[in-house]
Design a protein that fits this description.
By secondary structure, the protein is an alpha/beta fold. It has two domains: 172 residues, Rossmann fold; 92 residues, Pantoate--beta-alanine Ligase, Chain: A,domain 2 (2-Layer Sandwich), CATH 3.30.1300.10. It has a six-stranded parallel beta sheet with strand order 1-4-3-2-5-6, with helices on both faces. Bound molecules: pantoate.
Length: 278
Amino acid sequence: MEIVSDKNTLISLLNKNRSSVRGLIPTMGNLHKGHLDLVYKSTLDCAYTVVTIFVNPLQFGPNEDFHKYPRTIEEDIATLKESNVDLLFAPSVNEMYGEDKEEQVIVAVTRLSEILCGKNRPGHFDGVTTVVAKLLNLISPTYAYFGQKDWQQLALVKTMVDQLDMQTKIVGIKTTREKDGLAISSRNQYLTKEERSIAPLLKAELDNISIRLRNGETDYEVVETESKSNLSRVGFDVDYIAIRDSHRLCTPDEETKSLRILAAAYLGRTRLIDNIGF
Ligand code: PAF
């Protein structure tokens, strides 16, 4: 596996492999089974797999965990070497954005970036789409793989690629879960023992909503409100529970073909997100 931290070397290495079907897995490192499922899919689909590790300051708010975010580059490199990855791109913040971050061009997917997680994390998704646009431009992958756990992020990236006529195909991969249902995330390690025992109840509540919808409940607002109190009762501080159109993430309307049930909630200081299809 080649390891590169500057853009020029990245581009010259990629130019040597111009004709290969290329897969990209953008990450912020601290790799876990969820990331490795994306890597595995890329190695099945593509002749050449690129992973990026970059903790992107643009997508963290001033009171968020940018400085505390787990950085485990040595372990990540060892894991990727065993996973048939061809190239790791791990740039510094200066390499990615230059000296003057204030002058950075921002790629914003309006509306989709302002709802759900975007409501309480202003600027977060603009940071995500900006860095993903830069990575797609630098690497020109045939496919780029994203976890469905970050359903809103996936919807935003698909919209950006579509509207900016980018050529990469965005592939969403099913959420990887612990045995008790908790969606695997780097942030799970922040949970205390007690919080970790409560955390799977988030997925259980999404399943509960799905059962209620299957049983014919159609008043989504009532279902959302009741689920919110169920979660509050067991210790979550709920940001939102929302039954939405899968693709547009708006409240379901006559054009809706499938639903997505999405949630974000805090356990202590840790923000958990999850979603399931319906
Ligand atoms: O999902 C993530 O880890 C990040 O948001 C991403 C896509 C790597 C962009 O920084």
